[in-house]
């Protein structure tokens, strides 16, 4: 119940197609980062896609031996929408047999190491990929990774109202949380939130309009809210409250992440506006969560 008083003190998921049951011989199927192909090559993300395509093709030839002797005319490189941290490219390869294979090349955005622990990310992807979640890890290179290409579409609000689909999502989420990943089991949420806070609170924008908007943010308020949410749950009855706490914390996490991206990312996305969207959603949902928490605890 202490968590309840702490919370209230201040009164694009994708729907992928099923993974293939078999794999082409030209693409490795290992999910261990120590076993997948590795290349020291890097791709300059400041270039346009047509300008970087020759380098991407060279990279694919370097990583996958069955593609190494194919003429560059067999390769087609195009962008994939949806990446808000990485630049996503779809590379389609027409083999001599006439068959076409596709992979996704994820290029890390410049300075993304500022907000993402790449070593931790690769470690988790190895286990999640082996468990059938997301695209398979096929290769790693100097500033990115290659994964299997998954045909998918973004869920619509109508999709989310479908009880059968909601049940399937819940089943997959349950299975996701059962994946055993080696290493520390200590939650990283709060470490990441306060790390993001330190970095997000000292930014300066060259764009005067962005800087003006940035200066309207009360970082003291954000810090106090994060400290408030971090209060530990001490009894089983407060588990309901804890669940809502982590839902609220996710808004602060992504809001601070967006601020850093607004300064660092070259991608065409309004990260600064996304900060306000997520933080305003936090403030809106905090009130509702407090009411639910009070109602639950009063009835228990």
UniProtKB/TrEMBL annotation:
<dbReference type="InterPro" id="IPR011009">
    <property type="entry name" value="Kinase-like_dom_sf"/>
</dbReference>
<feature type="region of interest" description="Disordered">
    <location>
        <begin position="1"/>
        <end position="35"/>
    </location>
</feature>
<dbReference type="GO" id="GO:0005737">
    <property type="term" value="C:cytoplasm"/>
</dbReference>
<dbReference type="GO" id="GO:0004305">
    <property type="term" value="F:ethanolamine kinase activity"/>
</dbReference>
<comment type="similarity">
    <text>Belongs to the choline/ethanolamine kinase family.</text>
</comment>
<comment type="pathway">
    <text>Phospholipid metabolism; phosphatidylethanolamine biosynthesis; phosphatidylethanolamine from ethanolamine: step 1/3.</text>
</comment>
<feature type="compositionally biased region" description="Low complexity">
    <location>
        <begin position="22"/>
        <end position="34"/>
    </location>
</feature>
<dbReference type="GO" id="GO:0006646">
    <property type="term" value="P:phosphatidylethanolamine biosynthetic process"/>
</dbReference>
<dbReference type="Pfam" id="PF01633">
    <property type="entry name" value="Choline_kinase"/>
</dbReference>
<protein>
    <recommendedName>
        <fullName>ethanolamine kinase</fullName>
        <ecNumber>2.7.1.82</ecNumber>
    </recommendedName>
</protein>
